[in-house]
């Protein structure tokens, strides 16, 4: 007979993942229908359409052979992304805090970096038809600059993903170190215990600044407008995801929903001290946070055009400086 | 960057199109970039050529006129109006004043819907979905007015030789709806404009982007609002005899960038509403079509009119009542050079915006290609 000591954490993990799956599937529809569509005074899609019905539809679509130099790796990347986000969520659940090395801020940052690198690889490995030479004789008819290297638009996405890794995600990672500086520990268990005694970090000056910086970093990581430079419709279209079809696209959709939920859980653990515990009524607060973040994100994205470097650089620099200020305040 | 055989070698070429979600129509855009900054650009059209002039060849003039309406899905009325004006000019047909006023109302309504479409498309390319939706929402009123008068939302051309179609007659009920529609659009566009210029992110995004100097605009023979956005006061409506009863204020701005192109069209909307109100107020009574005209052979007839995008040219000659040698030149043909120039120096993400600021209509520009070998 399985002892309750084993059954309890396993059932907690499974229940949390089920909640994450359900909430993560509803959030994209919630954002499209109840935020964007309401602001734009239109009916919008069915609430289950973007997050649930679309991925299910894609699961049953015929797959295409992607035009990629390493198709196997290219097709594996969304699965890697999903696993990475799954692992982050797994180690945010309080029942897994015993594995201290992985239930830490350093591990979260490491996992998020893997997820970011996946975008670089996706862009580098994809060569969609959208930027292929068209049938009429482009090169034969002549014109200027005949020696230019022809680039695929996913290459641009790949370079932008690399740029985001280099500096774009600074705000997010700086904000993650605000609770670490206050508590003096990188372990989630210590951060949660500290807040159980001293109250949520969010309600300190450093915490408020940290929240603002975290939110900007969250939007950059989610590639949401105005930070959607990886998939700007005006040039790179879908960017790294362009060639994903069928079940791979379904995984991309599920991963996004999962990521939205997971990022909200990171915030609730680090800034409020509320890990997603299904055996507590406080899980409802976690779920509320999971909806509040996309709500604010949806409002901002509905009123923002896509940024170019001219707007992105000052935003990232300014937010990073705010993050540094939050860390300094947390150390005082 | 190196120079070989007078050709600059630029690091990377990025090709967008012919099918691209940011482009309303099929065209190919070759961008030569260095670190995502455009150093040169080349637009290639020609994938949507339908040969309408060739189909017009030998058709009775009435049928040929009706066919010109199919040239464009946005300025369909402008094409049939200019084609009819060309025939009327050649055949020396007098148009009843009421018919002329109704034609002007239709054309100005078309200008409204074209400018609102421009604002919607421009916002969409900026990725500002909310502004795009608002612009399209306002445009819906104009589309319904066009449907009410012309019977269709896209192919609503009113003109026939000698006047306008009988179904385009304006009774009191229709006039009232137009008046109410103009009041609604004026209020909504003012609100839209206020929000647009008050949005610091949007203004930062469009100011100084896609700049075309007045000198370049004149050199490239740019036309329409794109030319007026560089400070040149040129509008054919001020010289067209059809508009001689109307007070027209030609609006100009000076910077020639995306901001000025958008604002110019926003400012032209109230001016267009003003023209429609003048037409409604002074609408003459009388017949709407003159059917007493004879057809005879003519030399080649040329006619220019001012349409929402600029100067539109139609020409043909008549032989035995049939059209021969038809030529159509749309405003976007003149503006392609400016579109290419506007891209240079901007970020790749702004490339489509630089093109959209010139309000392109490549589908109606795909007319005919004549290859000239100047060496022979």
What is the CA-atom radius of gyration of chain B, in angstroms?
A: 21 Å
Give me the secondary-structure category of chain B. alpha+beta
**Proportion of residues in extended strands of chain A:** under 5%
Count of discrete domains of chain A: 1
Number of helices of chain A: 11
The residue fraction in helices of chain A comes out at 55-70%
Low-confidence spans of chain A: pLDDT under 50, at least 5 residues? none
Oligomer: heterodimer
State the share of residues found in helices of chain B, binned by percent. Answer: 40-55%
Shape of chain B: globular
Terminal residue distance of chain A: 52 Å
Q: Largest sheet of chain B at a glance?
A: 3 strands, antiparallel
Largest interface: A-B, 43 and 49 residues
Number of strands of chain B: 10
The Cα radius of gyration of chain A reads: 21 Å
Sequence of secondary-structure elements of chain A: HHHHEHHHHHHH
Mean of residue pLDDT values of chain B: 92
Walk me through the structure.
The complex is a heterodimer of chains A (332) and B (376). Chain A starts with a helix and ends with a helix. Helix content of chain A is 65%, strand content 1%. Chain A has one domain. Chain A has helices at residues 4-39, 49-59, 71-90, 105-125, 153-168, 170-183, 188-198, 205-221, 246-272, 283-302, 309-331; one strand at 149-151. Chain A is mainly α and 332 residues long. With 376 residues, chain B is α+β, with helices and mostly antiparallel strands. Chain B has a domain at 1-44 and 336-360. At the A-B interface, strand 1, helix 5 and helix 11 of A face strand 2, strand 3, strand 4, strand 5 and helix 5 of B. Strand 1 (149-151) of chain A pairs parallel with strand 3 of chain B, so a sheet runs across the interface.
